[in-house]
Specification:
The protein has one domain (about 1-75). It is about 40% helix and about 25% strand. It is built from 4 helices and 4 strands, in the order E-E-E-E-H-H-H-H. Residues about 75-80 have low confidence and may be disordered.
Length: about 80
């Protein structure tokens, strides 16, 4: 799947298993790492990628591409349920 997310000051693209962020420089990270950062709040990602992690995770949840982490977050009270 190839998707572009709209931002005013940066370009964000999901392509296969990778998230690309162009924010003056091009950054990339595996989607699993980005979602893992959203779920756990920890990880070694560039700041530009961390800034879009929540939007990437929400998009993937809305499409049904990623379901495994929503129950984990709800379990810890982070998602109203």
């Amino acid at each position: 799947m190839r998707v572009k997310l709209g931002y005013k000051n940066k370009l964000v693209e999901l392509d296969g298993e990778t998230v690309y962020v162009f924010d003056g420089k091009l950054y990339s990270a595996p989607i699993r790492e980005v979602v893992g950062y959203y779920v756990k709040g920890t990880g070694v990602l560039p700041e530009s990628v961390r800034a879009v992690a929540a939007d990437v995770a929400r998009f993937l949840m809305s499409t049904g591409e990623v379901e495994w982490f929503s129950s984990a977050r709800a379990q810890y009270g982070e998602i109203p349920g």
